Amino acid sequence: MSSLPLLSTGASRFLLHEIGVGRVMAAASVPLLLEYEAVLKRPETLNRSGGTAADMDVILDQLAAVLRRVPIWYLWRPQLRDANDDRVLEAAANAAAMHLVTFNIRDFGEAPSRFGILLCCPAELARNLRRTSVRS
Length: 136
Prior knowledge:
The chain has one domain (about 10-135). It is built from 7 helices and 4 strands. The protein has helices at about 10-20, 30-40, 45-50, 55-65, 85-95, 105-110, 120-135; strands at about 25-30, 70, 100, 120. Helix 1 (about 10-20) packs across helix 7 (about 120-135) and helix 2 runs antiparallel to helix 4. The radius of gyration is 15 Å and the shape is globular.
């Protein structure tokens, strides 16, 4: 994905790389991937990234190839004010995820902890991963 336009830098880019090479397991549901597609193909996102809709299709295809697909067995909604955030929480809950990684910490509040999921920002998870890989 390195030759394609990406907005992610720093910790987010590191996490995407770790997912891509298989060192970090990540999961998504079909509704969540459709939300990713909608966001990546917004005109303002395309303008900021310098990419095209076709570039975003390649990125989404690559993500879909490495993410574990999570079937939605039970709709946990609504838990949050934003239905798009509910999709993220729903995928994490159905995946029995350990972490929900987002910049949107405030809007998730305590909801992930009800499912035993730790809420963290990309930098926090990246720091922990780097720390554990240094010890190994």
